[in-house]
Amino acid sequence: MKRRLSENWKRVEQRIHDACHRAQRDPAGVTLVAVTKYASLDVIRTMVDLGFTNLGESRVQELSKRAAAINEWLGRRARDVSAGARPRPRWHMVGHLQRNKVKAVLPWIDLIHSVDSLRLAEEIDAQSTKLGRVMPILLEVNAADDPDKYGVAVAATTHLAEQVNSLEHIELRGLMAMAPLTEDESSIRQVFGRVRELFDEIVTDRICGPEFRELSLGMTNDFEYGIEAGATYVRIGTALLEGIPLSTERVSSQN
């Protein structure tokens, strides 16, 4: 398993490097978020042991359980000099987040990619205040105007950014979007390009501060297009877990 994970990781990193080369970008400017999906804890521990430092999860309950288990494992490992210490990974919430789940997940996460309403942002702000922390977030944009997808409408994004930016215990760092599930390259590029335009508008209009610099664009099947549009985060699950036994039956997800 460790060898297969390592090989998959190398292939994904090569794809990132090649996309950056085509876009004339430094690969160091793109952070790989390894989406754990239906991986078992053994797989996740192996990922951390290999050096994965950014892990993503789309389900609140699973993220909380996995983060707690990994923290406990790392704590035991830190006490064992022969095992070698590893830093705690940064956890990213990349799936839809309901307001009633914010309290449960907030202590475990380092970045929320999927804020899509003022009410959700306000709940994150309230719970962050109780924890005495400032929570970094991204706004999820429904740039494809797909009724089956979450995210704020393109026309409402700038106004929502202004509102969210005023919340004291939230740090708005950028935008996130999902491309349509299609092999039509032009449709994918159009979505990512529109999000990049929105990002540039917000920066140019100085709606947010200098911390607004992140774009989370792209999954296994389309992250190269995301990089070409300026992605600083890519969310990869399927390509990293190819050939790895999973803890439950896989569903049709293409993270």
Rg, nearest Å: 18 Å
- What is the arithmetic mean of pLDDT? 92
CATH topology value:
TIM Barrel
The CATH superfamily name is Alanine racemase
Distance between the termini: 20 Å
CATH class: Alpha Beta
> What is the CATH architecture descriptor?
Alpha-Beta Barrel
Strand content: 15-25%
Low-confidence stretches: 249-254
Q: What gross morphology would you assign?
A: globular
Reading the helices and strands in chain order gives HEHEHEHEHEEHEHEHEH
Number of contiguous helices: 9
- In helices, the fraction of residues equals 40-55%
Q: Pairing-aware structural class of the strands and helices?
A: alpha/beta
Count the E strands.
9
Essential attributes:
255 residues; TIM Barrel; nine-stranded parallel beta sheet; globular
Plain-language structure description:
With 255 residues, the chain is of the alpha/beta class. It has one domain (2-241): Alpha-Beta Barrel (TIM Barrel), CATH 3.20.20.10. 43% of the residues lie in helices and 17% in strands. The protein contains 9 helices and 9 strands. The chain has helices at residues 2-22, 41-50, 60-78, 102-105, 118-131, 154-165, 185-204, 223-228, 238-241, and strands at 31-35, 54-57, 90-93, 111-115, 135-142, 152-153, 170-177, 214-217, 233-236. Strands 1, 2, 3, 4, 5, 6, 7, 8 and 9 form a 9-stranded parallel sheet that branches. Helix 6 packs parallel to helix 7. The longest helix is centred in the N-terminal third of the chain and has 21 residues, at 2-22. The protein is globular and about 55 Å long.
